Amino acid sequence: MKATGDQQLIKRINRSLLLRLMRARPGLSRAQLASASGLTKSTVSLLARELLDEGWAREAATPVTAGLGRPATPLFINADVRALIGIEIAVGCVRVVGVSLLGALLCSEESESPEGSDTRARCRQAAKLARRVERALATRGLVVSGIGVGVPGAVDDVTGIVRFAPNLGWRDLDLLPMLVDALADAGLPAVPVHLRNEAHVAALGEYEFGGSEGEGPLVFVSCDVGVGAGVVLDDGLFGGAQGMAGEIGHTVVEIDGPRCSCGRRGCAEAFVGSRALAGPGGIDRAGAYLGVLLQNLWVAFNPRRIVLGGSSCVRHPALLDAARATLARYGDSAGIAPPGLHAARDGLLAPAVGAAALTLHSELRPLRAASMINPADRARSPGTAPAPRAAATVAG
Description:
Layout lengths: L6 H18 L5 H8 L3 H13 L3 E3 L15 E3 L4 E8 L3 E8 L4 E8 L6 H21 L3 E9 L2 E2 L6 E4 L4 E4 L1 H11 L7 E5 H12 L8 E6 L3 E7 L2 E2 L31 H4 L9 H20 L3 E5 L1 H5 L1 H18 L5 E4 L6 H15 L7 E2 L23
Parallel strand pairs: 3-6, 6-10, 11-14, 14-15
Antiparallel strand pairs: 1-2, 3-4, 4-5, 7-8, 8-9, 10-16, 11-12, 12-13
Helix pairs in contact: 1-3, 2-3, 4-5, 6-11, 8-10
């Protein structure tokens, strides 16, 4: 994303700074926000009023007096007006969640994808479930501020093109416009739609909503039909040159090993993916290979936390135990304590919740926004189709 120094961008950066401070330190007054941010009191006052009017922030019911001087009014993120929708398009199903601005899971929908479903059918399925979630949020008085989507493949974070998703048969697919059209046809509001790899967004969900913000690096490893990783570095996702960072399922762990879905032999997916878990000793073997992968990620990124998710880890807790034991042995050999290893906060819904977190992350860090279509300016987005028909628009 190209950054220019125009006033609108500067305003967005200042807004995002205040929102991040409200999340990290709830209850700061305007004067305290000015002191913590380095912005002038007048700038904070103007932006705070805007955030209050748009429903991003709320004031405490009662001002607080600390010592002498005028009472100060604490400010908080407002979880009572806006919400986020996250979508995971997985190999065999679609999951959609509604999430508050503070990361609370409010509602969810899931349905299986028939084998052989084409891309547009999957988009329509995702849109249908998203419409149900949007209606459930509306009954709570919440409006949708953004929609995030996670898919099991490499997504170019500049163009939004899905470069490689072997388990869905996708290569160089311009998926984002199809999704936006399907969402519009289903009656969803015209809000920004973001697209990234499912393991990447799951990592972001743990970072934004799991109490790890500002405590990176964080690595999320997803074990499902495929195996992938998401890495949060320097307060943002590490996607690589074409969004293919973290495709650890296609790192070769055994020369001339079993054939993988990508066509190569000996990939980690052939040992750790869900197809490899069947049969006697399958879990123990997969756990040992998974531990090797985690050791390599530990050395490569030196994370504070590694989080394991995906259907295999949720359905087979012994897989996590075996991987933890292998990782601990590597740590003992080197005389170094390994990073913390934990199960995903939201279980099978981790990628969908993470996709919702992607929309918030992009709002809080405007210079990092990518793989996004905003229906209001879609004509200026690379590789996109005409603007969708929309039932309503959420300001902001």
